[in-house]
Amino acid sequence: MRSDTLEVTASARLYGDTHILWLAMPASYQAAKPGQFVMAYIGEHTDPLTGRALSIHRTRAGAQGPEFALLFDVVGRGTDWLARREQGDAVRIVGPLGRGFEPQPRVQRMLLVGGGIGCAPLIWLADRLTTEGREVTLLLGGRTAAQIFPPSLLPPDVEVIVTTEDGSLGRRGLVTAPFTELLPWCDELFTCGPPAMFEALHGLLRQSGLRKPAQALFEQTMVCGMGICYSCAIFPRRGGVRLVCHDGPMFDLRDIY
Amino acid sequence: MPAPSLDLGLTIAAGSKRELRLRNPVMVASGTFSNGLEFARRFDVDTLGAIVSKGTTLRPRRGNRTPRTVETPSGLINSIGFQNVGVSALIAEVAPVWARWRVPVLVNIMGETVAEYGRLAARLDDVDGVAALEVNVSCPNVEAGGMEYGQDPALAAQVVREVRRHSDLPMVVKVTPAVTDIRPIVTAITDTGADAITVMNTVPALAIDARARRPVLPTVFGGLSGPAIKPIALRAVYLAASATHLPILAAGGVSSGLDAVEFLLAGASAVQVGTATFRDPAAPWTVLRELTEWCEREGVRDLRELVGAARRRD
Which residues in chain B are contacts of A232 at CB distance < 8 A? Predict the structure, then answer.
């Protein structure tokens, strides 16, 4: 949980209202894992006050040293400010934070399901898993084509299935349809997206009777990102309370629903 | 580190058997440092003046529904609802870690009844690692909670007497700004056996979601903290200082060394860094370093030169 002021190495609108920001990666991020996140602080003043929690989207070698990317929809003052950063600007970042995905070591067939901007951390996971020689199928769902991460930017070994609710790209409908078809195939499942999608996936998983590990990245209003403010509570169905930033953001779907 | 010529030390309950010595006047505010264990892995907690624990209740609490926080201009409204492990787990699992630290730890306690305050005090008395109590008579978050105690001098005094009856620990009492005049409360607390006073808790506040046409927080109201409340806290400290001879620990938007200086000038003897830590985990140490640098630059030898120096002497 250290604070670093990081240089922006590249910044671009990547697709639709979705922006990518590449930052110089400090050495302390070497052990970071897909599913972990950072807090990005907006401006030099205290308004807006709190950081924005954003998953690490990807890493790359970079010309001047390693870099990592944040991928985000421009939805408010914070993300608008971030999107207006240019090469050479600085952004204060605290991270890497939280518990990321934990793929089992010896399983082969990985199913990744991203809803909307929830694809951000799954891209890095897909990069990693294909590098390790595993089979990866990535389902990308969105309301419309403008919300779909460009499949051309993915490793060629990743099988990508796109669904849009308006049918403007890929199959018309929700990710739940291809999910149902691919569930028997996969060994392990990783997902990030809106809570309604998690609930649907969990329902289908239960119906199938298949006991497949299903790791999901949860979201909740975060303030500190480090387990000290207790803002980002999540209440597992079986009782108790967990903090998304500290105990998660990765939880097995079955531990929450 | 401070130059040898600069004395940053502070004593609470000076001359009594409860005397508590702080190496410097920079503390953390309850609820903004958890119980410190996460920080101890990354920072040298022993260089701070004191740590204040998360608000602790007799039984564990799950806290409120979400959202629990909402950002406002230079501020944060929270309604966490005292999620905490409860005093038994605190004593069994956390206090033994504190016992290995040199920095004193104050345990912030919150009861739902006067008797509960007494029971909490009794449980924590003589526990290794617990240096003092900070009694929360002012939290605006919990419906059945401390609000009423902190808003009435007689009720506040009742709590202070009950805690004192059950514990010989140094006792700090944290007051609320949600009163017409803070002075009668501060006087009552002073007269009944407190050793220091934390001024102040969060400011009761409301955020509304216009599109949904309802409050953002499920509890409707929450407590506002952060730079937005600093001027309110400065006034509260200034007023409180006229009503007590006890050390005042200032809380409310402290984010820099200069903020700390302003609070000392208004009459505080120490500051608690709170919401600033949510923006930067190193904030308490930054405040300490900047305060030290300011004193060196200004030729201050003893912080007591500053305490209350901005107060009118008429």
Answer: 66
